[in-house]
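Narrative summary of target 7.
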Amino acid sequence: MLIGILQTGHAPDALRPTHGDYPDLFARLLRDQGLDFRAWAVVDGQFPEGPHDAEGWLITGSRHGAYESHPWIPPLEALIRDIVAARVPLVGICFGHQIVAQALGGTVEKHPGGWSVGRTEYDWEGERIALNAWHQDQVVTPPPGARVLASSPFCRNAALVIGDTTLTVQAHPEFDNAWVRDMIEVRGRGVVPDPLLDAAKLATAQPLDDTILAQRIGQFFKERARA
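Modeled conformation, tokenized:
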């Protein structure tokens, strides 16, 4: 099954030699799910011809805000609506979660409470799931017809299922603990308050449930492709 990765940002230059760019992180996360990948760097204006250029779509994270004025955001929102209308499976992660919600009628805002960084526990339909987070923006109003799958005290709408072919997650299952440790020093200092970064760095000694999310994302793609 070919998954088109819609890349909405680039990993920091200092992290790419060790960790790769965002499509590499997702290929590594989903390496055991029987999926193939092709990336389009929409952040650089590279777009597929339409929703059927892949059998499923995944939208990455980004340092940009969904509500910001960038020339690639309106065509990305139009593509999202086309993918949903064509009933092609779609998964959005962090910025991807936000831009999908916004494109379908939801609202994204900068959280007045600040940042969520590092290991975060979510209530996923009664199950505790620990994933790394890195965000200040969040979906404050889900789009019509969305159902909330997961939440945390900081983020009420932390995972959504929209219709029956779209899944979005605010956290970063593709961010392992080594990535977060390096990200703290490369992109965190001077932007995110140091106490939050220090706590996140300590938490990188604890395990994550990223493999659980990888399985759920893989299952979501394959089940919807067969529908």
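The CA atoms of residues 40 and 48 lie 7 Å apart.
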